[in-house]
Amino acid sequence: MGNRGQLHDIGVPFALSLAVAVVVCGCGGGGGGGSDNPPPTITNALAQTPQGFSFEGGVVTIQADVTDSDGVAEVTARVTRPDGTQDPTLVTIGLTQGATYSGTYDAPLNPRGDGQAETYLVVVSATDSKGAVSHSGSFSFEVPAETIPQPPPF
Q1: 25-41, pLDDT tens digit by residue?
Q2: Model-level pTM?
């Protein structure tokens, strides 16, 4: 039991020295520990369907304003279908003017025969030149239902 007291007496100063060393060594000069690269800012993300867009589907324009102090390297959009599956192809969105990026998605025809529109969800992602990534909130567009004329009344 005498040895146990000796270890305890030696252990406390050692433990305090170790704690001080960890605290002192843990204080850094700010380099390498955290991320000093904020991700791109995505605003005004939307999907536009052309006038006369019908149940047959067609080209939907996806656009967003993207800015980043390091430069924007890539902007894409992921489309989720009405059944909840993601389209396997990312929509490439290119710079069109100022900070506005734009691309197109070919929406398929609405196969439903029940008069219901099909809603697609879209999320835009942007990557800056240093690898930081951000995502827009989701937004949607609809492929309308086929309009079936009513038979005339008798």
Answers
A1: 333 333 444 568 999 99
A2: 0.73
